[in-house]
């Protein structure tokens, strides 16, 4: 009876099985990196045969593209939700940063390694589109609230949005408290805007003689 039970696998709906495969791919990337990812490795982790794997995803690229799409969509929706509730610039930066760092603490580094792989990132154009939307959204608010020239606001925003990514990587290799790291990250981002504006106008101001 025990042997029979071991041979009998639980049946799952196609949607659940597909989600389990993506979950296994995400865990493999988070713990072992992209170099260890293959259809065979993901199948073993998900307890799915190789032939069944190809019924859900016709290639590894297809599977990773779908994983990237899923993870970005989850994070993006969470960030949009907090951004829409923000009433101050600090709340906007803190809210979106909190979502970003909490997402990494919860799920590990999944999106970043996928985006770093050109063969995967190029297959999913909305990955780039989402960042462009975020940069434009932030920079437009900076122009309105910081009285900063659009081209400068765009540059500062694009650069400052790289800070949470660096903080996320630091989070996983340190024992720093999540809240403390969030505070530091928010200070760095807001400081980038305030000091860039102050320094820019100080340097460009015409001398009075």
How many helical elements? 12
Distance between the termini: 96 Å
Number of strands: 0
Write down the secondary-structure element order. Answer: HHHHHHHHHHHH
Helix content: over 70%
* Average pLDDT, all residues: 88
Q: Which outline best applies?
A: elongated
Cα-atom radius of gyration: 22 Å
Question: Major sheet, described briefly?
Answer: none
Q: Would you identify the regions where 5 or more consecutive residues have pLDDT less than 50?
A: none
Q: Structural class, please?
A: mainly alpha
Proportion of strand residues: under 5%
Describe the structure in brief.
The chain has 209 residues and is mainly alpha-helical.
Describe the protein in words:
There is one protein chain. The chain has 209 residues and is mainly alpha-helical. Helix content is 78%, strand content 0%. It is elongated and about 80 Å long. The model has no long low-confidence stretch (mean pLDDT 88).
């Amino acid at each position: 009876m025990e042997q029979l039970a071991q041979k009998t696998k639980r049946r799952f709906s196609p949607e659940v099985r597909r989600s389990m495969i993506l979950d296994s791919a995400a865990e493999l990337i988070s713990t072992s990196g992209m170099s260890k990812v293959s259809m065979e490795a993901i199948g073993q982790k998900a307890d799915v045969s190789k032939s069944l794997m190809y019924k859900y995803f016709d290639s590894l690229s297809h599977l990773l593209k779908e994983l990237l799409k899923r993870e970005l969509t989850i994070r993006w929706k969470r960030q949009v939700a907090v951004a829409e509730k923000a009433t101050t610039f600090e709340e906007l930066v803190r809210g979106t940063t909190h979502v970003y760092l909490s997402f990494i603490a919860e799920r590990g580094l999944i999106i970043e390694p996928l985006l770093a792989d050109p063969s995967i990132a190029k297959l999913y154009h909305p990955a780039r589109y989402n960042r462009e939307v975020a940069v434009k959204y932030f920079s437009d608010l900076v122009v309105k609230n910081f009285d900063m020239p659009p081209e400068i606001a765009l540059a500062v925003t694009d650069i400052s949005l790289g800070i949470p990514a660096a903080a996320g990587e630091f989070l996983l290799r340190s024992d720093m408290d999540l809240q403390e790291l969030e505070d530091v990250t928010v200070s760095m981002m807001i400081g980038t805007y305030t000091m860039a504006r102050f320094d820019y106008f100080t340097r460009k101001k015409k001398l009075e003689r």
